[in-house]
Design brief:
Strand content: 15-25%
Shape: globular
Number of domains: 1
CATH superfamily: NAD(P)-binding Rossmann-like Domain
Order of helices and strands: HHEHEHEHEHEEHHHEE
């Protein structure tokens, strides 16, 4: 267990926590700016089964923030390339690639195979889809969202707790909103993705204060943060 020695030394994890990580199954929806750090750090921590679902291909404009990929992979499927990188990082893990979009037709069939779903997507429709499937299947949903220099993180449906619809109850209104500007600094998804991975590991190992029923926000221009109750 030399690979995991530094985290096993932590009393919050220890040998028992490492075994829990090995047995855990986490699905990451979206292998882009958020999905990259989530996947890298969960693989590094030793999460035994990681699923990656994304129907997009790598583009040059991704490389500024999607740190899983290289210039040589431009034009190739993100899910497949991410799988290769994670296996190279940690060959002991079961890394599953789904080079498709999450839809009403496949969501439950895919999500039911996992314990936790981590949000790496960039649109309201997919988040409602994840949320509703997790509620029906009693799965925990670790949520993250970004814009420009700010981001937010929460945990939904944890032990029957608050859901995404408690944060945004009016789906029709949210879906009718115009698309936000695409500008973003690479650090924003990096930080928020790491925060999501942190919540996933806390949930698996059973330590810390889970962000269930709360929403954490950070502004990277000022490093101002706050947490609100849902």
């Amino acid at each position: 267990m030399e690979r995991y020695n530094r985290q096993i030394l932590l009393p919050e994890i220890g040998q028992e926590g490492q075994e829990r990580l090995k047995k855990a199954r986490v699905l990451i929806v979206g292998a882009g700016g958020l999905g990259s750090p989530i996947a890298l750090y969960l693989a590094g921590a030793g999460v035994g089964t990681i699923g990656l679902i994304d129907d997009d291909t790598v583009s040059a404009s991704n490389l500024q923030r999607q740190v899983l990929y290289t210039e040589a992979e431009i034009g190739l499927p993100k899910a497949i390339q991410a799988q290769k990188h994670l296996k190279a990082l940690n060959s002991e893990l079961d890394i599953r690639a789904y080079p498709v979009r999450l839809t009403d037709e496949n969501a439950e069939e895919i999500i039911k195979q996992y314990d936790i779903v981590a949000d790496g997507c960039d649109n309201f429709k997919t988040r409602y889809l994840i949320n509703d499937a997790c509620v029906r299947l009693d799965k925990t949903y670790v949520y993250g969202a970004i814009r420009a220099f700010d981001g937010q993180v929460s945990v939904f449906n944890y032990k029957g707790g608050k859901t995404y619809r408690d944060l945004f109850p009016n789906e029709a209104e949210m879906l009718s909103m115009p698309q936000p500007p695409k500008g973003v600094i690479g650090f924003t998804p990096g930080l928020i993705g790491c925060a999501e991975a942190n919540e996933v590991v806390k949930i698996i190992c059973g330590y810390g204060d889970i962000m269930s029923g709360k929403l954490w926000y950070i502004d990277l221009k000022t490093l101002e943060t706050y947490t609100i109750l849902l």
